[in-house]
Design a protein that fits this description.
With 216 residues, the protein is an all-alpha fold. It has helices at residues 2-18, 31-49, 60-73, 75-78, 87-90, 107-116, 132-144, 150-158, 160-172, 178-185. The protein has a domain at 52-185: Cytochrome Bc1 Complex, Chain D, domain 2 (Orthogonal Bundle), CATH 1.10.760. Helix 2 crosses helix 6 (107-116) and helix 8 runs antiparallel to helix 9. 18% of the residues are buried.
């Protein structure tokens, strides 16, 4: 048995050294190789994610922060509503998952993958440049991503707070508070004795060098 194992090992090393296995990214793995690698990957991720404490992923500030990070870091590989392909993604093997269509990863597993990356898959370890709070923010946004259309995604990544308010209102049938709207658009609706962030006290604007300007 030992002799057989030695011979098999020598043969495997010889074959590897010969360069006969094609590592090109445009040539798929053998089926057996793909299944073996997927098993190793999935078990490694599940083991690494065990015991992680998941924060409140419905927190709007966390989601807004995650939207910004996802737009900057992830769309080139994992796509987004309205982003259906990219030159980078087309050249990757294995193909990265399309997160705009959802993910089978549990939140703790998604956190572990984003933080630590995966060898030989082009998935970087973002934990080397981002803290845990930033990574949890991306995980929080991933939970919302499949519910967004292209316009909502574009608005959310451009103006995260305002766009998330609009998306929440559309999703749950909420209406803007009429009295708050009146206070913003009708100064008379605000108590004149109260100074608020929306209705600051009037302060005349004076140019510092008024004498230097002539108005025709």
């Amino acid at each position: 048995m030992v002799a057989i194992l030695v011979v098999a090992g020598v043969a495997a090393l010889g074959w590897a050294y010969s360069g006969q296995y094609n590592v090109a990214a445009d040539v798929p793995h053998w089926g057996l190789t793909s299944r073996a690698l997927a098993l190793v990957r999935d078990r490694s991720v599940a083991t690494g994610a065990a015991g992680l404490t998941v924060p409140d992923l419905a927190d709007r500030d966390l989601i807004a922060q995650g939207a910004e990070h996802y737009s900057e870091m992830c769309t080139g590989c994992h796509l987004a509503p309205g982003v259906t392909t990219s030159g980078l993604r087309q050249g990757l093997y294995p193909a990265p998952p399309d997160f705009s269509a959802g993910t089978s990863l549990r939140p703790a597993e998604a956190f572990w993958v984003i933080k630590h990356g995966i060898k030989m898959s082009a998935m970087p370890a973002w934990g080397s440049t981002h803290d845990d709070d930033a990574i949890w923010a991306i995980v929080a946004f991933l939970q919302q991503l499949p519910t967004l259309d292209a316009n909502e995604y574009s608005a959310l990544t451009a103006e995260p707070d305002a766009a998330y308010d609009d998306h929440e209102a559309d999703e749950h049938g909420h209406e803007h508070n009429a009295s708050s709207h009146d206070e913003l658009t009708n100064p008379a609706a605000v108590d004149p004795g109260e100074t608020t962030m929306e209705q600051p006290s009037a302060v005349p604007h004076v140019h510092p060098h008024a004498n230097d300007h002539e108005h025709s």
